[in-house]
Amino acid sequence: MEGPISVIVRARDEAPAIGRCLDLIAGQRVEVPVEVIVVDHESRDATAEVARRRGAEVVGIRDADFSFGRALNVGVERASGPFVVALSAHAFPPDEGWLARLAAALADPDAACACGERFWPDGRPLTESVRYDAALAARHPRWGYSNAAGAFRRSLWQARPFREDLPGCEDKEWGRHWALAGRPTVLDPKLVVEHDHTHDPFLDIYRRARREAAGFASFLPERPPTLAAVAAEWWGDTRFYSNPWRARLSHRRVARLAGAYAGARAAPPPTVRVE
């Protein structure tokens, strides 16, 4: 394994979580040095202080300059390792071997990036590693790489940084670009971390779904959904729930559907960046 491994943690007001996140990173068993860079987005709590106490380099980003892609690009500019790990401050590795498994997933020289995944797009459990290649990217453009807890090659980032103009889904756009160019994403259930937003407040779920839908609509040539299509999805697509009526009556699921509808309808026409 080449080194060091650079870990970029994006954070805003994450004082209750970032200490545990950084402690879990410090406890990883790897054979190379690990450098940790926290990109702090104008936290109003002790996020930056907690990070510095644990030895992380803290880089600030102003609200006026913020996008998810921009925050990650700022962090990677300070990184020195050939492999870069992106990790949300409230994402927690499951054990001390997670970082080594993540780096090992990039042992395939063709792979652009790697991350954890539990399910296929149709809801079936994912039981083994899958290469998200051009064929899968064409069939499932909303699947793929995630910067919530993933690793990518710094050399490919240097060739093409994350898009800073997207309101969200900069990770999906980046991974899809490289998959279509012949550099797949490794998706593996063994790389999954503890990262759960399913019990967030209604408004937070709505905003996240709206942001993600607007992000997808900014680079995928898809027609915005109609209200009839959203209603059909609310009634019929009840996967991930043990009971159809529990799915239909879930206020959090309603928040996701409403946010996705609003984000897709409000987004400007998709733009494709000329390389």
Describe the structure in brief.
The chain has 275 residues and is an alpha/beta fold. The protein is built from 11 helices and 8 strands. Helix content is 39%, strand content 15%.
Question: What's the SSE blueprint?
Answer:
Elements (H helix, E strand, L loop, with lengths): L4 E7 L3 H12 L7 E7 L6 H7 L3 E4 L7 H10 L5 E6 L9 H7 L8 E4 L13 E3 L1 H6 L9 E5 H6 L10 H11 L4 E4 L13 H16 L9 H10 L7 H5 L2 H16 L9
Parallel strand pairs: 1-2, 1-4, 2-3, 5-8
Antiparallel strand pairs: 4-7, 5-7, 6-8
Helix pairs in contact: 1-2, 8-11, 9-11
- Note the total helix count: 11
- How much helix is in the residues? 25-40%
What is the CATH topology assignment of the largest domain?
Spore Coat Polysaccharide Biosynthesis Protein SpsA, Chain A
Global mean pLDDT: 91
Distance N terminus to C terminus?
31 Å
- Uncertain segments of ≥5 residues (pLDDT<50)? none
By CATH, the architecture of the largest domain is named Alpha-Beta Complex
Number of domains: 2
Strand order, largest beta sheet: 3-2-1-4-7-5-8-6
Element order: H for helix, E for strand: EHEHEHEHEEHEHHEHHHH
Counting helices, strands and paired strands, the structural category is alpha/beta
Computed CA radius of gyration, to the nearest angstrom: 18 Å
| CATH C-level category of the largest domain | Alpha Beta
Number of DSSP strand runs: 8
Query: CATH homologous superfamily of the largest domain - what is it?
Result: Spore Coat Polysaccharide Biosynthesis Protein SpsA, Chain A
Q: What fraction of residues sit in β-strands?
A: 5-15%
* Main sheet properties: 8 strands, mixed
